[in-house]
Automatic annotation (TrEMBL):
It comes from Streptomyces melanogenes. Residues 145-154 have a biased composition (Low complexity). Keywords: Signal. InterPro entries: Glutamyl_endopeptidase, Peptidase_S1_PA, Peptidase_S1_PA_chymotrypsin. Residues 1-21, 39-87, 115-154 are annotated as: Disordered. This is Secreted protein.
Length: 407
């Protein structure tokens, strides 16, 4: 299924269904630097008489961007001042960074203001046909639709790890869903977020999405659309806005992912490392929300799983992207091709925007764990499919954890 317009890209991993900072570290900084700027208008649109300034900081210590790093940014066609003043809207192929090593996501402060977050409703992916198997692999009968259940407010009480992902693509602002996951290198202090590959990278014919930001417990109090129009940023994002300073997805997604999943669907997953938009000392994302889910890369085979829950913020009709929903069902198998991993499939009426949302089941130790994420689903919104997380997914996860292990 599709998120409401998203991005993804990275190395080694598996993916499955689509729905719907210090970024300079991605360029080799030993310290995590965040490129910050000021957005000067609603939705981040700059006004002609505005003259925001840019600075490089690591938290609140005022660390400046070294000249060699500035030069490397410029080699990617990114001038810090021009970028924050609107150059990020240039989606010319030569400007759309594609390779795993090229990810950059400079923080533009207040770009994701309440109005822009509320209006971002486009998932990045297109729905798929109801019957997409036609393979020689293993596919179970299409599951009966399971009506998505609206979560009770405050969301943080029942699903504190869940949140909404915002990003920009050539067609405008988009949305997906995402989950806070544990970081082996920083027990109890994770800054890692799990989502779908198509929520960070456009796949075979595109590159990395821009302005990727995670909002845990988005609209925590379950406000109506009318109430959200008058809500403050604190009310909409009570735990803050966290920008991705690094993103990684599977090479299979980068090479084979498409608008409806394509050959990259079984590898449609991504891991982000995030940093708070506005300095909050040394407090991690996990400490901020109070928890993080472990990831199970060796979940039981389908016949042994009693149930899974898919979670997300569906944005395509009949939903509006502002509220958190959940589907619970016994998973089946979906094989797109005998040569690629079999995906999980659940009956669920969630639509685009729920893409990337975590699928939770009992892990090997019997405790709740993330075992997949929403990747694809049909326009009829009767089912969702997600990748089965194996060695490729673990490779992406470990790579992000190791990248920040000494920081």
């Amino acid at each position: 299924m599709r998120p409401t317009r998203p991005n993804s890209a990275a190395r080694g991993g598996r993916g499955a269904h689509r729905r719907t900072s210090p970024v300079l570290a991605a360029l080799g900084l030993t310290a995590a630097l965040a490129l910050t700027a000021t957005a000067c208008g609603p939705g981040g649109d700059d006004k002609a008489d505005s003259k925001p300034t840019a600075s490089a900081t690591a938290g609140d210590d005022g660390l400046q961007i070294p000249d060699d790093i500035k030069d490397r940014l410029k080699k990617h066609g990114i001038d810090p001042d021009k970028w924050k003043n609107g150059e990020w809207k240039n989606w010319d192929k030569s400007k759309w960074l594609r390779e795993a090593k090229d990810f950059v996501n400079p923080i533009i402060q207040d770009l994701w203001d309440p109005d822009r977050m509320r209006k971002a409703e486009k998932p990045p992916q297109k729905p798929v046909p109801n019957d997409i198997s036609g393979d020689k692999g293993v596919t179970d009968p299409t599951p009966a639709p399971v009506k998505a259940k609206a979560q009770k407010a405050p969301y943080h009480q029942s699903l504190p790890e869940l949140g909404k992902l915002f990003f920009d693509g050539p067609q405008g602002s988009m949305v997906c869903s995402a989950t806070v996951v544990k970081d082996p290198a920083h027990p109890g202090k994770s800054n890692m977020v799990w989502t779908a590959g198509h929520c960070v990278h456009a796949g075979a014919k595109g590159g990395w999405y821009r302005n990727i930001a995670f909002v845990p417990s988005y609209n925590n109090d379950d406000m109506s659309l009318a109430q959200l129009r008058k809500a403050t940023r604190q009310q909409i994002a009570p735990y803050g806005v966290f920008w991705a300073d690094w993103a990684q997805t599977s090479q299979q997604w980068i090479q084979g992912g498409g608008p409806t999943g394509g050959q990259g669907a079984p590898y449609d997953f991504a891991v982000l490392h995030v940093t708070p938009e506005k300095g909050k000392g040394n407090k991690s994302l996990e400490e901020t929300v109070g928890t993080a889910l472990p990831v199970d890369f060796n979940a039981p085979a389908v016949p042994k799983i009693a149930s899974m829950t898919a979670n997300g913020y569906p944005a395509a009709p009949p939903y509006d992207g502002q509220k958190l929903y959940q589907c619970k069902d016994k998973p089946g198998r979906l094989s797109l091709d005998a040569s690629t991993p079999t995906m999980y499939r659940l009956g669920c009426t969630m639509t685009g925007g729920s893409s990337g949302g975590g699928w939770i089941a009992a892990g090997a130790d019997g405790k709740p764990a993330l075992v997949s994420n929403t990747s694809i689903g049909p326009v009829t919104a009767g089912w969702l499919a997600g990748p089965r997380l194996g060695p490729e997914a673990k490779g992406v996860y470990d790579s992000v954890s190791n990248k920040y292990a000494g920081r």
